[in-house]
Design goal:
Nucleotidyltransferase, domain 5; six-stranded mixed beta sheet; 2 domains; globular
Length: 256
Amino acid sequence: MKRLLIDIGNTRIKGCIASDMRLGKVVSKIYDKSDIIKDYTSFFSQFIPKTKISKSNSTFENINISLLDRTLHTRISSISSAYETNFINTSTNLPIKLEYTRTLGNDRICSAVGAFMKFKGKKNLLIIDLGTATTFNVVSKGVFKGGMISTGIKTSADALMSKTTLPKVFLSSDVKLINNETEGAIISGIVFQQVLFIQRAIEEYRKLFKDLYVVATGGGSEIIRRHKTGIEKFEPNLVLEGLNHIAIYNENIRKK
């Protein structure tokens, strides 16, 4: 079965068509929160055939969405009303158990499932999602235990730029402790703030969970991955992979 997977985060929409366990080409788009319906419609249209939609010419059979703003469910599903649309939430049947309140973000659920299914031999997992927010999520023996939420690396940069007269900079992984110009000092400070925080957080989590395996995902991981933080694996599409596993898990339940 082919299914369309869509992850609508805080700043970006990512999606792909999955065939059973395999993800197709992942496409990504930064969206405007004030015009999200227009941006989503444009994003969604690239996956549908140019001719009239029918079961015979459709490139996928259903849509599975991770959407942080739950107030948008009705409007989003109306755009793709020709298809069965499934939104992930804490009430969805999952291959892991949750020890968390119903406020748990859908992206955190999906990345946790993605890591759990991909690294089944690991008893304890720490999943770090480096997006608009940096989240730390622990899965131990198949149970989502919880974690932490902090400011993402780009969010930190945007906050600094908006609250000061400092120049606007573009973040990179090329940083140093001693800088003799302002742009480099800003970039290094923001990046090292995140790097050192992640290092120390991992150290503390390792005290709580033996043989902890650390996985990272999210756009910020491209900046962080060159630095020694204790992260053992970088998986850029972990949320979509988890979303796919959840879809398959529920399809199998319906077949029983």
